Fold:
Amino acid sequence: MKTARRLPSQNFKLRHEVVDFNGQVSGHHVIHMTVAYCPESGHPVEVSFVGRGKVGGGMDALLQDLGIWTSRALQGRDPVTGQEVDA
Structure:
């Protein structure tokens, strides 16, 4: 069995405070972001996001698409189609 090649990565926690109409902090949103790097060049090549959404829900799907589109752009591909873009 062939083992998967894991890229070096770094994790980030993005926290945004929710402020109500009175200027009071009423909660917060947290999104976890992972950036994976090319071992040879050290450039970022993949990004993934995970937040507080039900698996398969709207926010989960949005974050998954955001990660895919961002990763494609980092790799020099069209974010929507995935086709290579001429530089």
Residues 1 and 80 are 33 Å apart (CA to CA). The chain has one domain: 9-74.
